Amino acid sequence: MTTFTPVLRAEALKVLSLRSLCGTLLAVFAVTTAFSALAGNSGTSEPGFDPLFTALSGVWPGQIAAIAYGALAVSSEYRGNGIRLSLAAVPRRGRWFAAKLVVVAAPVLAVGLLTACAALVAARAGLGAAADGLTAGEQARGVVGCGIYLTLMALFAAGLTALFRSGTATLSTVVPFILVVAFVIGDAAGGATDFLPDQAGQVALHQTHDGPLGPWTGLAVTALWAAAAVLAGAWRLHRRDA
User: Fold this and answer.
1) What pLDDT is stored for residue 1 in this prediction?
2) Contacts by 107-110 with C-beta closer than 8 Å and gap 24+?
């Protein structure tokens, strides 16, 4: 019987052997840090200025790379019917999918935490005295929340990719969704947009927030979206022959 550790090791080796996956993790760090540094050097005179969100605002474009990582990690299995080989080696599909999700979540969490720290330091250098009001607790919560948020978005993409059996379909759905939908339907939907996966999870990146969700409840909502996508992907994996 195939145990979990060898399966996990095999999936980790797949990630390390694909330059595109390593490249997306590097992009998470580079894009997020660069945009946060730029935001930190911009003006701070806007009403309602939030120094924590400004310092971590690079997550907004950087999350696209995290989503791409989750999608590519799963979609690589469907190229050239590689999924057949994977499931031949690991007949228990749930075990294989669990290992795949671990190699999606663990690197993104590690990179996300490192990225949040770097983004915060880079942005604070530009913000100067404008960020003096941030407490150590708020900054720690922002860093941890950022890492968890990026991880959940990567898992959300991984689950949808297993459902769609296509990374292209996932990216074509999720990226416009998080970049456009909240802004297009925001006024018409009222407070409903607060419960979208990106809007809910990003509450943790704010110093203060007046909406219905707090930092951890917002991340819990994003986790529910990710769990729903993962369960849908697992259902598709079990129902459809590879």
Assistant:
1) 45
2) 107/15, 107/25, 107/69, 108/25, 108/28, 108/66, 108/69, 108/70, 108/150, 108/151, 108/154, 109/147, 109/148, 109/150, 109/151, 110/147
